[in-house]
Amino acid sequence: MTDYQRMLLTGAAGALGTQLRKSGTRLGKIVRLSARKPCENLEPHEEDFPADLSDFDAVSKAVEGCDAIIHMGGQGLEAPWNTILNANIVGSYNIYEAARQHGVKRIVYASSVHAIGFYERTETIDGNVPTRPDSLYGVSKTFVENLGRYYFDKFGIETVSLRIGSSFPEPTDRRHLITWLSYRDCRQLVEKSLSAERVGFMVAYGMSNNSRAFWDNRTAASLGYKPEDSADDYADKVFGKTKQGDPNDPAVRFQGGSFAAAGHYEDEKK
Amino acid sequence: MTDYQRMLLTGAAGALGTQLRKSGTRLGKIVRLSARKPCENLEPHEEDFPADLSDFDAVSKAVEGCDAIIHMGGQGLEAPWNTILNANIVGSYNIYEAARQHGVKRIVYASSVHAIGFYERTETIDGNVPTRPDSLYGVSKTFVENLGRYYFDKFGIETVSLRIGSSFPEPTDRRHLITWLSYRDCRQLVEKSLSAERVGFMVAYGMSNNSRAFWDNRTAASLGYKPEDSADDYADKVFGKTKQGDPNDPAVRFQGGSFAAAGHYEDEKK
Amino acid sequence: MTDYQRMLLTGAAGALGTQLRKSGTRLGKIVRLSARKPCENLEPHEEDFPADLSDFDAVSKAVEGCDAIIHMGGQGLEAPWNTILNANIVGSYNIYEAARQHGVKRIVYASSVHAIGFYERTETIDGNVPTRPDSLYGVSKTFVENLGRYYFDKFGIETVSLRIGSSFPEPTDRRHLITWLSYRDCRQLVEKSLSAERVGFMVAYGMSNNSRAFWDNRTAASLGYKPEDSADDYADKVFGKTKQGDPNDPAVRFQGGSFAAAGHYEDEKK
Amino acid sequence: MTDYQRMLLTGAAGALGTQLRKSGTRLGKIVRLSARKPCENLEPHEEDFPADLSDFDAVSKAVEGCDAIIHMGGQGLEAPWNTILNANIVGSYNIYEAARQHGVKRIVYASSVHAIGFYERTETIDGNVPTRPDSLYGVSKTFVENLGRYYFDKFGIETVSLRIGSSFPEPTDRRHLITWLSYRDCRQLVEKSLSAERVGFMVAYGMSNNSRAFWDNRTAASLGYKPEDSADDYADKVFGKTKQGDPNDPAVRFQGGSFAAAGHYEDEKK
Amino acid sequence: MTDYQRMLLTGAAGALGTQLRKSGTRLGKIVRLSARKPCENLEPHEEDFPADLSDFDAVSKAVEGCDAIIHMGGQGLEAPWNTILNANIVGSYNIYEAARQHGVKRIVYASSVHAIGFYERTETIDGNVPTRPDSLYGVSKTFVENLGRYYFDKFGIETVSLRIGSSFPEPTDRRHLITWLSYRDCRQLVEKSLSAERVGFMVAYGMSNNSRAFWDNRTAASLGYKPEDSADDYADKVFGKTKQGDPNDPAVRFQGGSFAAAGHYEDEKK
Amino acid sequence: MTDYQRMLLTGAAGALGTQLRKSGTRLGKIVRLSARKPCENLEPHEEDFPADLSDFDAVSKAVEGCDAIIHMGGQGLEAPWNTILNANIVGSYNIYEAARQHGVKRIVYASSVHAIGFYERTETIDGNVPTRPDSLYGVSKTFVENLGRYYFDKFGIETVSLRIGSSFPEPTDRRHLITWLSYRDCRQLVEKSLSAERVGFMVAYGMSNNSRAFWDNRTAASLGYKPEDSADDYADKVFGKTKQGDPNDPAVRFQGGSFAAAGHYEDEKK
């Protein structure tokens, strides 16, 4: 469905990266996989290109020859500052700057609910509200969104920033009933982000067709995204296995869930 | 689905109260019924507790031991001021103040379209627009909504205020095609209002899946409410039996219908 | 479904006019057809009344005796100024002024995406945003919308202005996947615009149930419009036959498509 | 400046009532004073008409013959529910209903910051935000605003609801630097509310020209209100005499100040 | 202050045109005057160029050689349709199309309060609200605004559309206290509209520093416009000479005043 | 005016830092100066504490014992990524994290117009619009704003983020007429940011009383900020010395001026 000649997929060995490989040539004629370590079980349309995101030269070589990037790589959970700094801040700068130098046209970025995790569950928000990160991880996501905005406004590189909720095999707690993104819908959302003709800099939320949504996801719809799954189908199961939370627990009150409730990472680990 | 130990249902003998009894233990382990007169045909999980809402001591006893309240009681149509005053204003104050004294956590309140009945049909509104009541009855509904807001902001008692449209067995006029709430959907909406983990103070509209809606009902969706019925299924029947109204008739022009068109109650009755 | 005694359909010989004739008596007991030339194959409920829209007297006679008008006539594409002026500006003034003189109650007007064609595809807009026409044709559409607003505010004649996207047998390019309005949905939308009890002056978008929509079409929903078709069903076919456009091409960037990309009409024709 | 023949001033013996008497015939040709007890030192244009607001017949007699009302009477601070109920809820209903029966055209009502006292100081709000009362007193103010809205929408009686901040001789704490309304400005605001030709139902904030305002007071400006005083002139004095508050103290955090911080009235008094 | 070489001033013989001539070379090095008849008392920097706006060739010659236009010409009050059509619709099209052909960079257009005259006085509006014309004259103003929007979006010709309130020597009725624009402020507003470096397509309101304003005039401020006069200075005089209007009179209720209250022009003249 | 015991001023040797030292004890009882090199001419209430912002331990020692911070330090113009990274991203993280560890209550941060530099001049924005940085420098400012938001939402450390326009001795180009912040007003704005009782996380714009403002600066007003200077006083001088810019030049079109117009920093320097 896309006309991309060579797609770079970072984080190719991660959970979502592995799922996205299933999209095959719907991502691009050739899909260049990149992770810290070599990827396995390459398909004919795949090529492997391990790189450390914090190493600009390595990133630049990985980007060279690609016309689009799915940037799933980096640190995917709260972590010490230096990890966040190198993996997500420096790493994503390297991706964008290499993209500029090599003429990449579009980037699909795995942002996160944690970029806006301090909104309350009872607030319906869209992609234009001020960001309210719930963790250093979340702060790094807002950094990359601003970077994407800048590279579009100045250099014309388009970005779809997908604020992914909870992408797991199935919802296992009551908050997931709101934020769940099935793997199948995740693949569709990335594919549609690539094939839409004009995206500019766009923020869309990564969730399935969950009726409990606290997100106004019109931008995703405008990409042609039609989720096929719904957390609603798991509601009875989840309700049966879990207790109703305390509405005053920050993990219940805020969209970011346990991230919003956690203390400072390094204090917590002591 | 809820973890409430004892649910107080006021107005238990009314049309909606009777419907809600069908939800059974989905409301709470024990459902305490309250109306002016004793209720009949008690189920094992039900207990009867008649009380006059305008009598604080009686209300306090009815509330004691409950952890949540479905407040359907009071005067349900336009009436002389003293009736509205005692049944809806004093009565609802009694409910909220007793709830505070006895540690109730959540109240689901039967508010009404008549709290916003002077918006025009051609306006799409959500729960945050300024209220525009169409009757003293409607004014009393806005009073209780403000009371609920206050008790949440100050004392942390959560409220879902359901602005119910037209909850009847089926739609019988063209305005009902917009405002109808089936009994089944009404039950679901109340159940979801109880089981959602965090509601704060929330206003949601009580309507089925009617395509002609003039309400943006995102808050209801965020509770997990997925209406199963639609007034659309009755459109042909209703169109066949009724004539197209005059768009300048206040009963057609305004969301409140005949309430907005009516004169002063006591003048009308002369 | 409507109670209109005699409906005037202008542009009755055009593509949409021809489709609308299929609605038959759902438009009115008698449907008076008007085009520059006589219409053919009249049904028993139809009467033919050819008229040149730019001739006030002819229009006045055509309007006389009608209680509602579906105004599809005029110039339907970009054209030299004098054509736009006479067919759309003078012609529509004649319709509205004749309507006033003869007591017409409601007008359904075929406005166009080209009234707002300079919004970007990535913007979701509703009917209240400032107009941004992409052509003199589009400017003429905004003129008629203002005329309709004026005749309602001052004289109480109701108008539904339908900003029609792309009404063709099926979508043939990627932009159509966003803007397509099937003939069947077009008929329904006009019928619902007539049968809704109160419309005031309303702008609604004419599109089918296309997930890629850049329009917030709540007003259409409030009329009871439930599209039965979707451009999504043609997506694979269209993707297969077309290439991904350049996001910086004005025809891709803007909602108006090729109209926004075109130069000045008469320069282009040289 | 106004053309009113006879103006009823309720609460004429209170602090603001006493100030408003200084406006003299700028309020009306005759100013009828009403308080629970007789007023003193009547001017030639004044007449005294003591009445208990909770007594409809007394209120009706006081209203008879007046064409406008300045409604300053009732309970002016938090109080037990029964006091609030009788003085503010029943009392104001009596005013509005008597106004309807006797053809009064306009009412200027002394509402309060406490109708929206649970907004944070850091939020800028206008008169259209949902009310968030900080006390039963504040709830009663929202009741009267809804009553005023209703009597305008249905019966055409105009109201300006003035949400008065802190009207004292001078600001004495840091919150007053935001909310202060000088007596002189209070008089002007009431006079302008009376002389504006069209007010419909309008909410305006009662504050002087304080730069620290958290209110968008365009509606007051549209009445022609140009405050002559400013709390800014007292800033040095107030800063010198007071300490910087704790930003997490509810009395500092919320617009309602100590009202928002107080517990339940009757609990507090124990 | 501007760098324009030759400024075309249409309507140069009208009331505002005559005032604007006083701005002299602040408008441009040479000011080309255009009216239906020759202008008198030319200054050295002025040249006279009479033209009928409805004659494209005459307009084209008048525009040739100019780099900016102040378009004050046309019909300035309600009139029969044909007058409005030729003077304002055809005439303004001629101005814009000639501007395009001759490379004009910026147009300052005398739009009017009557483009939005059906908003109520109690509504505060800015330049982005949907237009609500109160007359055919007002409809023609909205036509030219859309034309200006189109010529900017497509051809890059900038426009400041000034919705002028009431520009007279002094305010003489109570509505003027809201809408008055002194001649001095009118000149300043036009000068600032010319000298601002970037205006795109902008709508600004033409009023002096009147505290009763129902317009949010930020766009005018952003041009550097600082009104020196205020209708407030005439308030006592106007109040003394006029009576308080009936709030239900359309001339009082709506922003357009008597235009909103008038019936159809030609009916009125019978 | 503030009750702070010890205020840390970073960037104390820079242009704004030097100006802020003139505020003396209005900042705090003791003002601890910090820059890369020792500061000169210490006043009795000042203490010197040189530190490299990118060195956490040095920052931590500088912060220890302070209850508030004015964070003016770091890189103040576009620079190579590594400079931005260390001075602004790592440096500001160090400030915030040290503040958390040492119990600092409030931070006033020197953000910049370049955080939103890609808005057009013709857009009026407030502090809640999505950020649109015009440079890597601007991206770093948005990073710190998100960091401040996070440290407030999670740890309760208040921040006022001042998006400073152009703080120079006087305006020297036409864009400065919009964005100028006099040194005197800069000092006042920082002082008011410190003395306001509750700021939460707040964005305010740093500009003097310039009529050409494209910023809605209500938040600054709510702090009590009343600018004493205005770029307007320099308008004639600036207009006399400069030419009208080309509206299509990005330096004219965008709020960020030359930053928005510049290419990539390192390309430019080649």
TrEMBL record, chains A, B, C, D, E, F:
Coiled coil regions, renumbered to chain: none
Pfam families reported for this sequence: Epimerase
Keyword set, alphabetical order: NAD, Oxidoreductase, Plasmid
Region (Disordered): 240-270
Keyword NAD attached: yes
Organism expressing this protein natively: Rhizobium beringeri
Record protein name field: NAD(P)-dependent oxidoreductase
Domain NAD-dependent epimerase/dehydratase residues, every copy: 7-179
Keyword NAD: yes
Family as reported in the entry's similarity comment: Belongs to the NAD(P)-dependent epimerase/dehydratase family.
